[in-house]
Amino acid sequence: MDKAPLADIVTALRDSRGFAHKRDISDVVSALGRALPGGASDLAQAVPVGDDCAAIPDGHGGYLLFAIEGLVEDFIVRMPWFAGYCGVMVNVSDIYAMGGRPTAVVNAMWSSGMSPAAEMLRGMADAASRYGVPIVGGHSNNRSERPQLAVSILGRANKLLTSFDAMPGDRLVMAVDLRGAYEEPFPYWNASTTAPAQRLRDDLELLPLLAERGLCKAAKDISMAGAVGTALMLIECSEVGAVIDLDAIPRPLDVPLLRWLTSFPSYGFILSVAPENVGTVCALFHERGLAAAPVGTVDDSQTLTLAQGSGREQLWDLREDAFIRETEPTRV
Predict the structure, then answer these.
(1) What CA–CA distance (Å, rounded) separates 317 from 320?
(2) Dihedral sign from CA coordinates of 268, 269, 270, 271
């Protein structure tokens, strides 16, 4: 069992690389809002900036979904095939986290000749094949001193899951595929590359099913900020708070708690679910061999508190310190 004191876990999460990268988002959102003539409200989409995808009404009752992901350079250099694979995989996850289904991806890639470009492209192609999403174009530059990769995706949703609809009284549910292993030495829990391709697609199909059946309105896929950091982003967007019970978080038996809390799983979601739907939602994941459990409760505190045993520690107070939202009022 993991014996790290709760206060140490709180400190480690606050200081983690995943939290630092997410905190940078607030500076970008603030700058974008100041640059637009009408401020951030000038962005014509169904949900504000800060969600997993932009959601644009399609005029037929549904939504066009659009997202992009960039890969850090050290990851590309050390694991070019897996970086390419993840470029597609994480975008697919973003589309499903919004209750949608992916349509196509494009990429922008910089490399020094075909090394590591060839391996990145092979990884992207393998992921596109396994997830059933075509690569339809992109941009390439094989005369760059340093490798870079960004992948963008298009999708469509009939009903949205957003980061802005968690309500006090909801239960936070964590759903994750534990049938994997780490891509050492990185914190990437890989339950994708060796899984049957049809199972990958069918497991993801649960997310639009939940949206379309009205069983859930708010969700995010677990990112590099880990399960707790992802929950923090969700409650910030919804302007609510939460208490998370660390003992309730599904995790592999042989993985220390702190490492798991800073891990990025290939399949992982945090959902905000009305109490009466929690049993049904968890059962749908369990039927597919996925782990799912209620791990916390949403409240109106605008703080995130972690609980473990009889202990409780406040991780973040969103009333005093923004996480990914604007750091200062937009000037119009």
Answers:
(1) 6
(2) negative
Residue 248: closest CA among 194, 174, 310, 190: 174
Residue 332 reports pLDDT greater than 50: no
Give the predicted TM-score (pTM) of the model: 0.90
Domain of residue 270 covers 6-27+162-317
Categorize the per-residue pLDDT at 158 as very low, low, confident or very high, splitting at 50, 70 and 90: very high
- Whether 152 and 179 share a structural domain: no
Do you know the residue count of the chain?
Answer: 332
| Backbone φ, ψ for residue 167 (5° rounding) | -125, 145
* Domain-embedded: residue 39: no
- CB-based contacts of 240: which residues, under 8 Å, 6+ apart? 166, 167, 168, 298, 299, 300, 301, 302
Identify whether 301 is part of a domain. Answer: yes
User: Are residues 143 and 106 part of one domain?
Assistant: yes
| Whether residues 170 and 313 fall in one domain | yes
Measured CA distances, 13 to 229, 261, 319, 324 (Å): 8, 8, 19, 15
Alpha-carbon distances, residue 19 vs 4, 194, 225, 305 (angstroms): 19, 29, 5, 16
In this structure, the answer to whether residues 78 and 153 fall within a common structural domain is: yes
Radius of gyration of the chain (CA): 19
Strands 135-141, 311-317: pairing kind: unpaired
Which are the contacts of 232, defined by CB distance < 8 A and separation ≥ 6? 225, 304, 315, 316, 323
Query: What gap in Å lies between CA 149 and CA 183, rounded to an integer?
Result: 19
98 & 211 share domain: no
> Are the beta carbons of 94 and 106 closer than 8 angstroms?
no
- Give tens-digit pLDDT for 310-324: 999 999 999 998 887
Residue 41 located in a structural domain: no
Give the number of other Cβ atoms within 10 Å of residue 311's Cβ. Answer: 12
Q: Is the pLDDT of residue 1 over 60?
A: no
67-124 residue pLDDT tens? 999 988 888 999 999 999 999 999 999 999 999 999 999 999 999 889 899 999 999 9
Provide DSSP, 109-153: EEEETTBTHHHHHHHHHHHHHHHT--EEEEEEESEEEEEEEEEEE
